[in-house]
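hey m, so remember when u said the tokens were messed up on ur end? i reran from scratch. heres the input so u can diff it against urs
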Amino acid sequence: MDLSCKNEYAIAALIELAIHYHSGEPLQIRQISAQQQIPDRYLEQLLATLRRGGLIKSQRGAKGGYVLAREPWKITLLEVLQCLDGLEAQPIRQESTLKTTEGTIIHEVWQEAHGAANAVLQQYTLKHLCEKRDARRQLDIMYYI
């Protein structure tokens, strides 16, 4: 499982929304773009996908923008990737292309790896990423003192 640029940008945008979740104020595309250094037009497409997936909501008007649809501790990374890439929560049970014992073994290990990756992604939420970000920033500050 690779981390695509699309996934990285979308998760970064969601972290930005999670950071501002308690203020209740929607963030505009230009604000998220400036903070996370994501091209505006690309971010607009990503946010539209996340909105259709039910992870964020858009608010119209002069003070409109985007907010998380749920609390940051209720949105998992697995859910984000499923929204963006249409990944299945459970691996698809298909037969190995190779009709050999080796092919079967390779397929079984691949299924196990897929399950392990999903388990890790399921246990991390946007709140966890915000906490990791804050801890990393504290370490960076301590390093420069």
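this time it looks ok to me. The two ends are 38 Å apart (CA to CA). if urs says something different then somethings off w ur setup not the seq
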